Input
Amino acid sequence: MKPMIGVTMDMAEGQKQVVQEAYIDAILHAGGIPLLIPAGVEKDAKQIEEVLDGLVLSGGDDVDPYFFEEEPCIALGKVTPERDAMEIALTRQFLNADKPILGICRGMQLLNIVCGGTIYQDLDTQYENPLLQHKQKAAKSHGSHAVTLAPASVLHRIAGRDVIRVNSFHHQAVRDIASPFFVTGQTSDGVIEAMESTKHRFVVGVQWHPEELSEAGDPISQKLFDLFVKKCSKL
Ligand code: MN
Output
């Protein structure tokens, strides 16, 4: 049996819920079955968790700062309350069940918020130190900045080296990291770019978009999906 992987959908303009095909391709390529999860199913999070083997929290718009007890700052982007509700309910459910979660970009921030952490609502206006460019203008396939990986991390094991280059399309980032996470990747400006749980079998967050790098042929990014899907397989 191939593992069934839920992929959370994004709220696009015009009442559309969408998912970038690169997530689907990366999961298929890793041997999993991707299943799309729309907003509106939060009341049935438990039932959904029971039939799925893993969860990908995909990228998207900003998480409502209400969930980390802040008022919206001036540079906050679009929030999508329906999506927040669905993803928060599912994330809680998967964490409780100790089923694998891969949080990508917004998904990593959401993981941190669900566990009681905070994020920068907007790096440009809230970050304390000079920043690298985290909203790259190059294509998604391009690794624009370096990330230094923590030695004893899933990502370091996959990459087999201390520094990788990744793409960057975010104006928010993890601020106070919540237990049970620890920082597993950072840029030279100190921005947290990856984290993983110390308490779960596989709960990993990355601030970049490995699905796009994988699509462009980056072996490390595909290995991340391969390992995630493997961890989702029934023992
Ligand atoms: Mn970045």
User: Anything to note?
Assistant: The helical segments are 21-29, 45-51, 81-97, 106-114, 123-126, 154-159, 210-215, 219-232. The mean pLDDT is 97. Residues 4-233 form a domain with the Rossmann fold fold (CATH 3.40.50.880). The pocket of manganese (II) ion is lined by residues 134, 145, 168, 170, 187, 193, 207 (CB under 6 Å).
